[in-house]
Amino acid sequence: MHDAWTLHAVVRELAARGGEPALFSVNAGKVQAHAAADVADRAQRLAAGLIEAGLLPGEPAALFAPNGPEWVIARLGIALAGGLGVAIDDISTDLEVEVLLRDSGCRRVFTVSAHLPAVARAVAGAAVHLLDGAGAGIADRSVSHWSTLLVPQAKPLPPLSPDAPAALVYTSGTTGTPKSFVLAWRHVAANVAALTGTGLVGRGDRVLLPLPMHHVYPLVVGLFTPLSAGAAVVFPESVTAAHMGEALREARATVIVGVPRLYLAMLAGIAARAAASSTLARLYVRAMLAVSGLARARLGLKLGRLLFRPLHARLGRSLRMMVSGGAHLEPGPLRRLEALGWDVYCGYGLAETASVFTGNRPGQKRIGSEGRAFAGEVRIAEANAAGIGEIQLKGPSVFAGYRNNPAETAAAFTADGWFHTGDLGRLDREGFVYVTGRAKEMIVLGGGKNIYPEELERAYGQSPFIGEMAVLERAGALVALVVPNLDAIRGAGIGKVEDAVRVALAERALALPSFQRLTGFAIAREPLPRTRLGKFRRFMLPELYAALSAGARPAAAGAPSAEDKALLESSPAREIWAVLGERYRDKPLHLDAHPQLDLGIDSLEAMALSLAVEARTGLRLADEDIGAAQTVRDLLRRAASADSAAAPALSAEDLAWLDPPRGGLRLLGAAIHVVNRIAVLAMFRLAVRGRGHLPADQAFIVTPNHSSDADVAVIAAALPWRLLRRVHWGGDIHRLFRSRVRRAVCRAMRVFPVDDRKPAVTLALAAEVLRRGGILVWFPEEWRSPDGTLQPLRPGIGWLLERAGAPAVPTAIFGTYAAMPRGRRWPRPAKVRVAFGIARPAAALAAESTGANPAERITASLRAAIAEGLGEGTAAAAG
After folding, report:
1. 338 neighbors 307 (Cβ within 8 angstroms)
2. Looking at the domain assignment, is residue 605 inside a domain?
3. Residue 646: per-residue pLDDT
4. What is the largest CA-CA distance in the chain?
5. CA angle 759, 762, 765 (to 5 degrees)
6. Are residues 873 and 776 in the same domain?
7. Residue at 854 is within a domain
8. Pairing between strand 143-145 and 127-130?
């Protein structure tokens, strides 16, 4: 079977294809085709030249260059000459290049001009052949253009034995200690023959290959297999979305060979484009996705290409199939891709198995699985009650062992000859493999509980506020590194990134057993370290977590440029820089610092900063200027163009929300209060304490804890009838004011809009309520608690109490979390209590705590008072 496949046969087939393209490169929007016969001819002449130059059978020769047709021809030439290919990642560091070249013993390197210094430092005197440029003007005699090696083929090239070495492979380094091993041509042949036999690709297909070919997966699946099947390979200029789309369209690619991260990024781009469309367009996309997905799953109909024609036109009408490997592609994204109109096939394998070992194929596909074995056997060792154990493999593509490392080789195989993959999974009755995690990455907690980080990362990572996250162990407990999705957080109107992440993680934790819950997290600005195929470099995570937990941030990027110096010397940037230095002296202040992630400037701190800047310069910074700035440099530039005469003032439209409802709206409000009180008393058996603590004839703020959407209804029912006509509420502008009906109800109930992105306007409206003698209900946590416990209070309440001079009534609500926690749409019957505390003037609250300023002291004391009330409520309920 696989014995019939040889590289020589592939090259003969290329020659027979004549002028038919075998390789495409797309650069600057231009497509360059390379005829199959020409590729075969140059590869054979290069092989002849290498033999003539003294390359011995099995001698290692390195490729240290980006993907492209020249890389392919060089790789084929080395192989046809009997050499051992050693591919090095094009983005390797100088140290990595030195280690790999010296360890492999390479004395011949195919590279590009940009890498010449690194190669020269790594191996002095090596024969270096440039794959770029024309080779003119090269002074070093050891450096030549690769084309100088092309000679006429005077005699047949040496045959390649199935046991001859094909590739020297270095592990990806996810554990920090790369090992090396040699794949023979029989290992490669087993997989290429199996893949071509599936018929997934064939004559006329054009396979887009964005992955670096130093990995075995793109080399075997993305290069050797298409060329063997009579297809062509397309190389994009880079892996950016723009260049990928350009290559798909211009080269008319029909297939992509990629990794899950590539497809997730594609889906994210599609989702972002839909989110920026009209409401009608968004609804259409959702509906059509549901229809197409259902038709695909239930009837086998492929409606996506018809329903999403504009999308296919934009990405490439010819694209029909996506191949995913290197990591697990979750069923949800896979189904979305298929609903959009593409066929998606996933497989499983390791570099030690010449890449692919199992795979889905036409007529033999299970979404969520990695398919069945192609040319070997799979077994699950030491399976638990759920059938999950280590995946072990045996077959013709499995390597022989690690190079110069008998201890690692012995550890890699069982006594009866099966390969330890180190992966965990299960087999169904039909032989489909389901991968669940890495045994080597399993975390064992102090209580003996086994944690598979990939499972938790999927569970927690479902929140739109989390861009990516990695779970690790620290001091016997679970913690996480989180890269937030700033666009989603900003789009939701949330002022503080840390709050969004904390609540998102806590909310997801509710569905998990206690031993799988995180005890802490650290926020990272940059993407977490991964291999080129998208796997976390987990050995690097503990040090990164420790650094970020200790407050480490990216350092300033060298000396400021002349432009930056001019900015810092100009007014008002000079004065604002001085204010920043005073306020954030313990933070990593530099021009590239992120105002929110590095300096901690959330929406309310932005207001405080704006006031400080105004006091120093007379310039009022708009909330939007601070909130939209991505760097301190951006903030200073925005300040330079700000309108210094602009003063904060409430518009007539803002103030209209505080006017008493009239006519029908007044009757609607009264009716809602009556119905609400009846419903709350019936469902929650509401009991109220401390109504006598509520001031009768002055403005004040009711400040309850907030753990449920039911809190508003409960407080409204707990307040005396005589006070309700003076009560005003703040409501999230994104949740409550999105339609005309909702806005009318808000007017009837005296709810004014709260926009976290405009805290100055929100606080000014709240202060105006109190100035008019009204009563304000203000949930100082702002977020509903994800677990029912009291969260930190946002500092806005401190600012408000300090400036308004009105007292606060600390209020405790007990029982609403049990009745209607976050995520529950309808409440369930429960016993609810409300306890109004004694009214506390702002001055008294400020005197009870310590802090940098009165607002902070007021906030801290108020939280203590609410917590005390919650303790009383708990005791009363228990009694």
Report:
1. no
2. yes
3. 45
4. 107
5. 150
6. yes
7. yes
8. parallel
Give the SS3 label for residue 323. Answer: strand
pLDDT < 50: residue spans in the chain: 1-3, 136, 173-176, 556-557, 644-647, 873-879
Half-sphere CA count of 302, side-chain side, radius 13 A: 10
Distances in whole angstroms, Cα of residue 82 to Cα of each of 63, 184, 827: 15, 12, 73
pLDDT digits (tens, 9 = 90+) for 206-234: 999 999 999 999 999 999 999 999 999 99
pLDDT at 573: 85
CATH number at residue 283: 3.40.50.12780
Domain count, the chain: 5
Given 402, 418, 438, the domain boundary residue is 438
pLDDT for 606: 72
What is the pLDDT at residue 623?
63
Any domain includes 264: yes
Read off the DSSP letter of residue 738. S
CATH code, domain with 843: 3.40.1130.10
Burial 632-643 (b: 16+ CB within 10 A, else e): bbbbbebbeebe
Tell me the three state secondary structure of residue 200: coil
Burial of 19 (0-12, 13-18, 19+ CB in 10 A): exposed
Q: Would you say 168 and 104 are in contact if contact means Cβ atoms under 8 Å apart? A: yes
Residue 201 in domain: no
CA nearest to 191, candidates 44, 13, 393, 391: 393
Residue 552: predicted pLDDT: 59
Do residue 744 and residue 831 come from a single domain? Answer: yes
CB neighbourhood size of 93 (10 A) = 10
pLDDT value of residue 271: 83
Q: What is the pLDDT of residue 659?
A: 93
Six-digit token pair at 674? 């009556």
Are the CB atoms for 168 and 179 separated by under 8 Å? no
Q: Distance between CA atoms of 423 and 542, rounded to whole angstroms? A: 22
**713 and 613 within one domain:** no
Looking at the structure, do residues 657 and 632 belong to the same domain, yes or no?
A: no
Q: Based on the domain organization, do 670 and 539 belong to the same domain?
A: no
Classify the phi-psi angles of 326: left when phi > 0, otherwise alpha if psi is within -120 to 50, otherwise beta: left
Task: Measure CA 156 to chain center.
Answer: 52
3-state secondary structure 840-878: ECHHHHHHCCCCCCHHHHHHHHHHHHHHHHHHHHHHHHH
CATH of the domain at 509: 3.30.300.30
Residue 467: give the domain boundaries: 448-549
Q: 640, 664, 693 — which closes off a domain? A: 640
pLDDT digits 0-9 by tens, 687-735 = 999 999 999 889 999 999 999 989 999 999 999 999 999 999 988 887 7
My answer on whether 312 and 282 are in the same domain is yes
Regarding whether 25 and 155 lie in a shared domain, the answer is yes
**CATH code at position 582:** 1.10.1200.10
Task: Please tell me whether residues 592 and 704 are part of one structural domain.
Answer: no
pTM for the predicted model, two decimal places: 0.68
